[in-house]
Amino acid sequence: MNIFRLTGDLSHLAAIIILLLKIWKTRSCAGISGKSQLLFALVFTTRYLDLFTSFISLYNTSMKLIYVACSYATVYLIYMKFKATYDGNHDTFRVEFLVVPVGGLSFLVNHDFSPLEILWTFSIYLESVAILPQLFMISKTGEAETITTHYLFFLGLYRALYLINWIWRYYFEGFFDLIAVVAGVVQTILYCDFFYLYVTKVLKGKKLSLPA
Amino acid sequence: GQSVEGKDEL
């Protein structure tokens, strides 16, 4: 465990909590893509099946359980409790265009052709693109609430910190996972445009709105 | 690649 990995995990946790609190406090999930949140719930479910097969550490187990629980709670708030506030008309990204190719790729390119490993690979690939419905929704409406941009910032920062963690681990531990690294690079690149807007607009106190 | 048992990252 190095500092980049730890801050990456905490950044991920911050993102998840920010989103939950935003929905809970405002009693509304306006501007949030339920589809992205469904995909993240699927990502955590397929990745953390090793909770049943192996124990790494108390930290590892607790974080996995927290991520899974929070992602299901978020989905519940969007599709059940605050369904009336869900902006389904703008959440029109076709998720099958992500899930089907990602599913096929995880069968073709993986470390080991076993059920758990294929599901882990699927979750890694899917996570890298799971934010697309949310970004698509923002590009459609042309704006995002500031709290939503904080959520996206921490979510993007998390994988960027993991990239540094992987460089660190490569040099100091000889650890290298090509699948995670390539997917992590793709994932981080998808946030670049958003990072630019976040720094140039949101951090200067302006609302994130896109030119018409 | 690493085995399923070795997945210490989140």
UniProtKB/TrEMBL annotation, chain A:
Major location (coarse): membrane
Subcellular location: Cytoplasmic vesicle, COPI-coated vesicle membrane; Endoplasmic reticulum membrane; Golgi apparatus membrane
UniProt GO BP: protein retention in ER lumen; protein transport; vesicle-mediated transport
Keywords from the named record: Cytoplasmic vesicle, Endoplasmic reticulum, ER-Golgi transport, Membrane, Protein transport, Receptor, Transmembrane, Transmembrane helix, Transport
One Pfam family linked to the record: ER_lumen_recept
A molecular function GO annotation: ER retention sequence binding
Name used for this protein in its record: ER lumen protein-retaining receptor
Species, as recorded: Chelydra serpentina
